[in-house]
Automatic annotation (TrEMBL):
The protein, known as: alpha-glucosidase
GO terms assigned for molecular function: alpha-1,4-glucosidase activity
UniProt key word Iron: no
Pfam family for this entry, one: Alpha-amylase
Biological process terms in GO annotation: carbohydrate metabolic process
Enzyme Commission number(s) from the entry: 3.2.1.20
Length: 552
């Protein structure tokens, strides 16, 4: 396979720039901070970095509310800083993937300002609608019952324009109108702008929200969503409704396939395949359609099943079921992917338990396809503690609930990276934008780099094993040998095989490998017990090998 196939086996590292590394002491991570740490990422074995948004923005939703898709937020640096980052990344062989946020802009965007004033050409850039007249009053109701994912009506009245606009997220994130061909073209131009700067593709934000049912088919009105019937919700909650009119519409898929074609033009232009990964929390069928059809190529839809379906209580058989589900549903010839965390979800140490961090990293890195690691998961960071007073995430602030806000808050998984034991974990010399998690003296990179039994060393070792031909191109076999032992085997004829063994129990296990028909065969083995890597090396497997529950 040539280098144009890099994306099929990429190890992608998600950077949340605000919390990665601050280079100038203002307490906010920035581009020069990322550039400083590229050597670290290279040594770790990362193939590509995906940068959460770095564009000009008022930061209501920390960059997912974009003012100008072609400008860098001053707190993150300048376009020159970005170009320096690109040059250094290229020198080290690290690809750069940008976050594309097509569903909405920020309300400070020039497009939105022009649309409010109905400037010619911009009238229909956003989803504008009249309110519904109420009997005996001059007031109007929002055009439909739609709810924002961040709670309450998804419609906001604008008195200058005299109409409501749609916002699936915060009020400052107006939804773009993809029924406008001009909007369609704008978003292609944005992609070309970054591709021409040499980026290797996009992670596409909130793709499921791109289209809403066309009022032309509903008597000129936006149709109400049916109620979900979930008794644990109230009309302000997103979960109160079934989103049949506002998520994963047919038109959305067509746009994704068109973007794939656009990216494919760059194979010839730049000699590189450009990756597209789409973000949608959706049912499996809706998800798989993003991959494409028999005649059209699509994206790699993020596989969030490890985040949603694997918990502290999952046994080996359940984990195998979760893995198999994606592999069997995925259309043939497409590329799998495994997401072990992101800036929206609780960290692995909290979700699956600190003693399963190595196991989850190993599973994701040994399975076929793309593996995506969120910054800090390679050292087993935990969610930080963020009080109501310190809370910044709009999803938490919008609860208006100083007691239960934490259930919705994404701040704990966005606290600064733990580089070392020094002030602010070596992230910044200034007051940090979110508090640093209190356990950084114990959990930090500097300590783990010198400790061969650490999460980091285990991760780095696996990233290297991932480069072996058997893991890149070999067959996969996943087995639950019992409720507590999971085995992932990768074999390629004529190449050294790889065997990953997970012991989920608190007790030592003797794993009988005769059933795997690997004997006698020289194979690289990595095994993980409760919290350590305890069988290491290349073994000639005879029959049984011990997998300890705890580090010696
Ligand atoms: O997230 C899309 C999304 O569906 C979120 O509402 C997600 O379900 C929620 O955050 C889970 O807690 C993307 C981005 O990843 C997120 O950070 C942005 O806030 C959102 O889009 C709007 O751009
Ligand atoms: Ca800074």
């Amino acid at each position: 396979a040539s280098d144009t196939e890099w994306w099929k086996t990429a190890l992608i590292y998600q950077i949340y720039p605000r919390s990665f590394k601050d280079s100038n002491g203002d307490g906010i991570g920035d581009l020069n901070g990322i550039t400083e740490k590229l050597v670290y990422l290279n040594q770790t074995g990362v193939d590509a970095i995906w940068l959460s948004p770095i564009y000009l923005s008022p930061m209501y939703d920390f960059g997912y509310d974009i003012t100008d898709y072609r400008k860098i937020a001053p707190e993150y640096g300048t376009m020159d800083d970005f170009k320096t980052l690109m040059t250094e990344a290229r020198r080290l062989g690290i690809r750069v993937i940008m976050d594309l946020v097509p569903n909405h802009t920020g309300n400070e965007s020039e497009w939105f300002q022009k649309s409010i004033r109905r400037e010619p050409g911009y009238e229909d850039y956003y989803i504008w609608a009249d309110g519904i007249k109420t009997e005996g009053s001059n007031d109007t109701k929002p055009p439909s019952n739609w709810v924002s994912t961040f709670r309450k009506s998804a419609w906001e009245y604008n008195s200058v324009r005299g109409q409501y606009y749609l916002h699936k997220f915060v009020i400052g994130q107006p939804d773009l109108n993809y029924r406008s061909t001009r909007v369609q073209q704008e978003m292609k131009d944005v992609q070309k702008f970054w591709l021409d700067l040499g980026v290797s593709g996009f992670r596409v934000d909130a793709i499921n929200h791109l289209y809403e049912s066309n009022p032309a088919n509903f008597g000129g009105r936006y149709p109400d969503e049916p109620l979900s019937g979930n008794p644990n919700t109230n009309p302000d909650d997103y979960e109160y409704l079934n989103h049949i009119h506002t998520e994963n519409l047919n038109e959305t898929y067509e746009v994704v396939y068109d973007w794939r074609d656009l990216l494919d033009e760059y194979i010839e232009l730049q000699g590189e395949y450009k990756i597209m990964m789409t973000e949608a929390y959706a049912d499996l069928d809706s998800m798989m359609r993003y991959y494409g059809t028999s005649t059209r190529n699509g994206s790699i839809p993020f596989n969030f099943s490890f985040l949603g379906d694997i918990t502290k209580d999952s046994d080996a058989r359940h984990i195998k079921t979760v893995i198999d589900k994606w592999m069997t549903y995925m259309p043939s010839g497409r590329t799998a992917n495994w997401v072990n965390g992101n800036h929206d979800q609780s960290r692995m140490a909290n979700r699956q338990g600190v003693d399963r961090v190595d196991a989850m990293n190993m599973i994701a890195l040994l399975l076929p396809g793309v593996a995506i690691t969120y910054q800090g998961e390679e050292i087993g960071m935990t969610d930080g503690e963020v009080s109501w007073e310190e809370t910044k995430d709009p999803q938490a602030c919008n609860t208006d609930d100083p007691v239960n806000y934490w259930k919705k808050s994404r701040d704990p998984n966005r606290t600064p990276f733990h580089w070392d034991n020094s002030t602010n974990a070596g992230f910044s010399t200034g007051k940090t934008w979110l508090p640093v998690a209190s356990n950084y003296h114990k959990v930090n990179l500097a300590e783990q780099i010198n400790n061969t039994k650490s999460h980091y060393q285990f991760y780095k070792d696996l990233a290297a094993i991932r480069k072996m031909a058997a893991v890149k191109y070999g067959d996969v076999d996943t087995r639950a040998l019992s409720e507590t032992v999971l085995v992932v085997t990768r074999l390629l004829p004529g190449e050294q095989g790889v065997l990953g063994i997970v012991n989920l129990s608190d007790e030592d296990q003797y794993v009988d490998l005769t059933s795997l028909r690997l004997i006698p065969r020289v194979i690289k083995v990595r095994a993980v017990g409760a919290n350590c890597d305890n069988v290491k090396g290349t073994l000639l497997i005879k029959n049984k090998i011990p997998v300890n529950a705890h580090c010696a």
